[in-house]
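Model it.
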Amino acid sequence: MVRSAISYNPATLLRAKREKAREEAAKAAPKALENSPSEDGEPSTDPESPMKVFDMADQFVAVMKPKMTQMIGIIVEMKKLAEAATNSVLSDDDRRKLNVGFVEKRNMIERMASDSDFHGRKIFSGELMRTALKIPVGNGPLDVVEVRFESLKNDATGLEGHKVDSMVNARNALKDMDNVLARFQLAGMMFKSKEDSIHLKRRQFIEENQISEEVVSARQTKVVEEDANKRWEIQRMTLHLDLKEEQERIADFEGRETALLINRKI
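Modeled.
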């Protein structure tokens, strides 16, 4: 009895799995950086350093700054796709192709917005409107920077359900894209002001406590190195497990192909 050939492409699946691993690593890294203990169970940074009061502030900037920039960049790309889809000379097939990219980016933004949390608090939602996130930047009770993004208070990105698969839908999406982009750009400006406040508080703290440049430099170097090491370790472990699984799949595929050839000869 002749069996049909097995439809399986190890190379294509491997590329897909690697891409998935990179996405999972990028998603897991910020969460691991929020509160990652060392081998002895203590905080990863030096607990004796006077600069430890800025740990949470440094983590906030390191985790949220690239995500904020990435989200704004994706929204700008979505606006360009919506603008292109309003061109009356496009065919229905061309507009459907634009819609595929638009929807992919829309889903990406919605996932990032729902997954973006810091120390258990949602950043890209109205949760911060109810109670601001207070980030310590010193030893006193008033030494805090409050994070509250008023432009993102609706618990939604504003992109829900939008698509550009027709002229009408493209025009409606483009109209709302201007509002969505403005909201996130305003949030980006507000984030920059929080980052500037953190830097200002840091300089004041260093001057008031007469902390030496050596201590400050050592602390910053340590934080940067730990950030890079954690991100690399997460990526390495994710890719290792992913490739191990793929090797098992390929071995299974090759075994089935061999059995198929034997059956054919029989």
